[in-house]
Design goal:
alpha/beta, 6-stranded mixed β-sheet, Rossmann fold, single chain, 4-stranded parallel β-sheet
Amino acid sequence: MKYKVKDYPDKDGFYGKYGGRFLFPEMDEEFRRINDFYQRIRNDAEFINELRYIRKHYQGRPTPITYAKNLSDKLGGAAIYLKREDLNHTGAHKLNHAMAYALVAKKMGKTKIIADTGAGQHGVAMAAAAAYFGMECDIYMGKVDAEKEAPNVDRMKIMGTNVIVVEDGAGKLIDAAAASFAAYEKDYKRCFYPIGSALGPAPIPQMVRDFQSIVGIEAKEQFKEMTNNRLPDKVIAVVGGGSNAMGLFSGFLEEEDIELIAAEALGRMRNGEEEQIGEHAATATYGKYRTMSGFKSLALANEDGTPRPAYSVASGLDYPGLGPELAYLKELGKVRFETINDEEAIDAFYQLSRTEGIIPALESSHALALAIKMAPSHPGESFLVNLSGRGDKDIDFVLNKYHQ
C-alpha cells in the first residue's frame, strides 16, 4: 500500500482506527480550539519562516549525518550511518517540537507551559523554549526519573523552570503525565500542554510528526549527497511514544524499497521469553487496542484503559503507550517492530562510545543496538539510524550500574 503522509490523519484525528480525541467536554473543546488554530497556521508563510529562523539560528540545524566507519568495520556487513540529533541544541530531537509548540502557544496568547518528562530531554527542551519565548514553565517529573536523570533536573532549574517531582504511584513518566494534565485542567485558559511524543488526543500526534519531520527531510537529502544519490536500505529508530521515529520515518514513508524498523524496549526480559508484566515497555509487541490517555492506540493497559506498569533502563521509553500513527503503520506493515533489552542497549552505548567517540542516550542506544545486531548479516547494505539524543544525562547512572 502506498502511504502518503499528507493524507493522515483524517478530519477527526484518526489514522485508520487509531487516534481521535476522547476527553471530558471542557478539555475536548480546548483541544478542538488548538486543532482549529494549528490547521490554520501550519502552512502559514509567517509561521514557517519564523520556525525556519529558529531552527537555523537557535537550534543549530541542520544536524549532520555521520558515517560510523569504525563501528561498521568492526561489525562487518552493513554500513551504519547516524542522523545526529544529539547535536541539536539541548542534546536531543525534542527541541524540534518544543520550539514549534512554544511558537504556536505564543501565537495563541498562552503565557505558561505545563508539561511532563521522563528522561528529562522533553523537559529541558520545553524549559529552553519557555526561556526563549519569555513564558512561565512547570515541568512534572517522576521521583525515580528525577533521581536517575539529575543533570537534566538541574538544567531545567537553571533555565528558570519550576520542576515538580511527583512521588505518587511508581514515580515514573506515567505518574508525571497524570499529575501534569491534572494541573493543566485547572489552568488551561492561559496554559499550553505540549505532550513530548507523537501520541495523545488529536491534534498532538499530527503536530509532533509535522514538527519532527525536519529530521527526515534533512536526512533524505544528506544521505543522497553522501552516497552518490542512493537511499538507505534500512531506516532504524527507537520507539517509546514515537516522536523521533515519526520524524525520521516521515521522510522515507513514501519510498517503497526502504525498510523502516522500530526498536522498542524489552527491558529486563530476553527475546523469546513469555511476557512478564512490568518488566518491559514493548507496546507494539505486547500491547492491546485500547482507549488510554484520551486517544485510541496500542497500549499496555487493562480493558478499562488503566495503564499496566512499564519498564525500561531508558526513562524516555518507560511509558505504556504507542503513538496512533505508528500503530497504524504497524498494522499496514509499513513499519516493522523489533525488541531490544537493557543488556543489548547498554552494550551498544559502550560500543559507539569506544569506536566512534560518540556517547549516545540510552534511548538512542536501543536503535543502535538493533543496527549492531542486524549489520553482520546484511553485507553491502546501508543502515540509517536516528541517534535521537546524547548520553550526558545517562553517564552517572550507567557508570554506577553497568560499568564495563
